[in-house]
Amino acid sequence: MADSPAxxxxxxxxxxxxxxTTCGVPEPDAGKVAGLMVDADIYGYDTHGxxxxxxxxxxxxxxxxxxxxxxxxxxxxxxxxVIDGDNGLGHLAMAAARDLAIKKARTTGxxxxxxxxxxxxxxxxxxxxxxxxxxxLGMAASVGSANHVxxxxxxxxxxxxxxxxxxxxxxxxxxxxxxxxTTVAAMGKIxxxxxxxxxxxxxxxxxxxGTPLTDPAQSSDGFLLPIGGPKGFGLSVAIGLMAGxxxxxxxxxxxxxxxxxxxxxxxTGQFVVALDPAAFGIGDGFAEEAARVFSEMRASAPLPGxxxxxxxxxxxxxxxxxxxxxxxxxxxxxxxxxxxxxxxCGLDAPFPEDEH
Length: 356
Description:
It is a single chain. The chain has 356 residues and is α+β, with helices and mostly antiparallel strands. The chain folds into 2 domains: 104 residues, Malate/L-lactate/L-sulpholactate dehydrogenase, four-helix barrel (Hypothetical Oxidoreductase Yiak, Chain: A, domain 1); 198 residues, Ribosomal Protein S8, Chain: A, domain 1, CATH 3.30.1370. 36% of the residues lie in helices and 14% in strands. A 7-stranded mixed β-sheet has the order 1-2-3-10-4-5-6. It is globular. The model has no long low-confidence stretch (mean pLDDT 95).
């Protein structure tokens, strides 16, 4: 990584957008999706950013994802809605859900917007950070785009990584932004290790015999482990009910593995929430009180051998600004993959120095 020169954010965004247009995505949509994908890398969610371009292009090329989708509102109340993503790129429907949830929260105090017939949309942090930056609380969750987890104690793959994210405003440089999978590790991390030729740590996956699995090339033969054992399993099921069943989206055996099956619609389900503290009579006081509590936590003396206490989201604003100014450093394996994708799309290699 240290030997890889940084790539300008604008150049990377333009390349991703051009690659998407070669698969029939209209330029405005391609630009919006490319912007969100690069934002994922800017904020440090590199397993869910530009790294995912190969998967998205494969589904667009093979018919599993609609390049010219036009999302619509399938059902709506004053505080809630369900968006039909028309099987398009997931970022488009989720960005619309986020914006609509914020609009409703400004009017009613809360906005809850679900998505059906969506697709993988990158990290959920993209759809909760704007709420916190606007002085609101945010939440989002999704049914995973493939099943890698059995029900606790079982052996049938019926649950995904089912991520969930929260955000909250706080006075200071960084809002609280917490984005996690309900498994010990996100599948994106395992895919990244596979691309880089590295092993997984023990405790991420087990084989069908229950023994630790560390070879990411064998991940399809094993199970991802839920966080906290049965507690993580229960949380994952709850997310599946709210993001999947409630929206008329896939859950359980109806989930399509969007990597292995590039021709079938996934009907991915998600939801985005925005909550206005003013609806509870606290308004701007929430951010001030949150900052006070966070300061107490950061001031807690660390245990021997531990770094100082940090809150989710700490340092991300400054790191993101530095990446916007200085560019993104992508690992060599990803740079080679993007060059290969460029050749497939008939585009100039974004990293020509890596071709030799």
